[in-house]
Amino acid sequence: MGLRRLSTTHPADTSAVLTAALHRCWRACACALLLALAGQVALARTVLEFDPAQQPVALADWGDYWIDPTAQKTVQDIAADAALPWQPTLARNIYPLQPQQALWIRFTVPPAPDAERWLLEIPYPAMDRASLYTLDRAYVWREQRSGDLTPVNQWPTPHRHPLLVVNFNAEEPTHYMLRLENVQGFSAPIRFVSSAYVLRGEQQVSLFLGVYFGLALLGLVVGLAGMVLLRDRAYLYYAVCSALVGLTQAAITGVAALHLWPDWPQWADRSLVVLGVWMLMALLILNATIVSLAQRSRPLHRLIWAVVLGGAALSAALLLTDSELRIALVVPYLVLVPVLMLVVNLWAWRRGDRFGGWLLLAAAPLAISLALAIGRYLQWLPLSFVTEQAVLASMALQMPAMLAVLVLRSQHRRENTRRIQGLDRVDPSTGLINESVFAERLSRMIARSERLRHQGAVLMIDLVNSEQIQRDFGRKAAQDLPLRVAERLLSTARDIDSAARLSEHRFSMLVEGPFTAEEAATLGPRIVARCLMPYQGLPVDCVAQVRVAYALVPRQGPTAEIALARLAQTLAGVSPQSKRAVFMMPDYK
Fold first, then answer.
1. CB of 43 within 8 A of CB of 107?
2. pTM of the entire structure?
3. Alpha-carbon torsion 252, 255, 258, 259, what sign?
4. What are phi and psi of 414, to 5 degrees?
5. 584/197 Cα distance (integer angstroms)
6. Burial of 175 (0-12, 13-18, 19+ CB in 10 A)
């Protein structure tokens, strides 16, 4: 501070009276000289005042800063060197600090009542080292140390970010030196808060972080459950991604260093970049799996895995390299992965993927938040709520969005699986059951009718004017006509009845009894009339002409094979020129 009194040597203890006199003289001269120097720096500097009603109290431009280019000077060297080019501290808190350099900030706390315990707060969990030196009454600099390179359990106040105790009294000013080291530069605010203020703030932050980590844990559980129950590896990737998102956010907020690895300073210093790379790797794999990239484009899928393997190699390098190299290594990856994710989602969406658009919207906030985080690490932006919490907020939006997409994807996959499994039982074009299923149901109906002693009916319907429709109205109308017939059969059948498609132009129905022969005779004309009604979207004359043969079971058809064979024989014996449309099968003899 330009004052040679700030040394660690004690005055000669020749007598108690002489010592006391020298001490009083020394303090008076030091205070006068400090105030004079502060007045020479700026005439309108902000006055540091600890007001509990105005928290947090910013240092603003009350202090002075100097950057040690070699980071070798001690606090005694700084205090004894009057030629250092001190400058007022910056309002935007962005200092041109480079790797292997140290930022020194000196400030004086005016006399103030010590009713409350005050702390110097640096709200930056990734700080490498922060040391606060206090000049005590014996003119010895006392150090408090915190930061990632110091175990959290050895901090003066273990916390998510550095909190250093500010000691002052009501009689005279207290002088401080703050030494900061950080390979990413320094852009965090320096402010003062009381213990009560910190306690209230931590209660609010703990509530928010508890909800966030609870959602991350829920995502992990849901992912593992989905993997086991649905046997879908996308849920495994989601579970891994949820766990890594939670750990990464714990590292960003300082919770991990405080609670998970308080005794591992080396890992605490590297955990943020390493976990961040792992999180991006898991997120990239999950995104590619959801859009089925392996089936859609093998080159893109190989590119994704190349980037993932590159991320694995990068994480190993981040564990082994020095701090100043990590940002240069990790920033390109932080840019590449979000851009690649956006490109893949856009590519999938443009090619008709039903989830690509939603994933594109979910990934956009993450890309923007990572851009803000990179701007802060590169000292383009100051530390603020937006630059610090944007990644946290974007992941809080993206992970539930991806879970919703996963659930929808699982529903569609189950529906497709049911359709594929039903192809051997259902006609895919009309949705009617096929011949084998129809014969099975007919056998059960015959057995049921014998047991309950009543009659049911089986009908066989032939579409006979398909060629005439093709000549008059075109091929498309002829192809659509069987679908129209199937629709009319379904509208005629009751819930307990069954309709089937036996061949391209032949259909069949099961009508559950009991009913009499007279009631059964009305079934065929009703179907013929329904098929002759005009169809929406087709010309009035474009209608289906059908012939119906029916039998009562089990009286006219004791077995399914006999009943179907005799119905087919009945329709085959009808002359093409016949105007008759309904035929009853003769009694079985």
1. no
2. 0.65
3. negative
4. -65, -40
5. 93
6. buried
Q: Do the strands 546-553 and 582-584 form a parallel or antiparallel pair, or are they unpaired? A: parallel
In this structure, the number of other CB atoms found within 10 A of the CB of residue 121 comes to 25
Q: CB-based contacts of 320: which residues, under 8 Å, 6+ apart?
A: none
> Which of 41, 57, 37 lies closest to 49, judged by CA?
57
pLDDT 10s digits, 68-127: 999 999 999 999 998 999 999 987 777 888 888 999 999 988 887 767 789 999 988 888
Cα–Cα distance between 383 and 124 in angstroms, integer? 8
The vertex-118 CA angle with 115 and 120, nearest 5°, equals 165
Helix (H, G, I), strand (E, B) or coil at 585: coil
In 3D, which of 549, 567, 548 has the Cα closest to residue 557? 567
pLDDT in tens, 115-166: 778 999 998 888 889 999 998 878 889 999 999 989 999 999 999 999 999 9
Distance CA 505, CA 519 (A): 26
Dmax over CA atoms of the chain, in Å, equals 141
> Cis omega before residue 514 (within 30°)?
yes
Both tokens of 304, joined, read 């994704």
Joined together, the tokens standing for residue 505 give: 């132009």
- What distance in Å separates the CA atoms of residue 572 and residue 588, rounded to the nearest whole number? 18
Distance CA 266, CA 256 (A): 13
CB 481 within 8 A of CB 463: yes
DSSP string, 422-469: HTTTB-TTT--B-HHHHHHHHHHHHHHHHHHT--EEEEEEEE--HHHH
User: CA-CA distance, 12 to 80, in Å (whole number)?
Assistant: 20
**CA-angle at 584, arms to 579 and 585, nearest 5°:** 125
State in Å, rounded, how far the first CA of the chain is from the last one: 122
Backbone phi and psi for residue 95, each to the nearest 5 degrees, phi listed first: -110, 140
Extract the runs of DSSP E, i.e. beta strands, from 136-231: 141-146, 163-166, 174-181, 191-194
**3-class secondary structure per residue, 124-162:** CCCCCEEEEEEECCCCCEEEEEECCCCCHHHCCCCCCCC
Nearest to 56 by CA among 172, 272, 200: 200
3-state DSSP assignment of residue 201 = helix
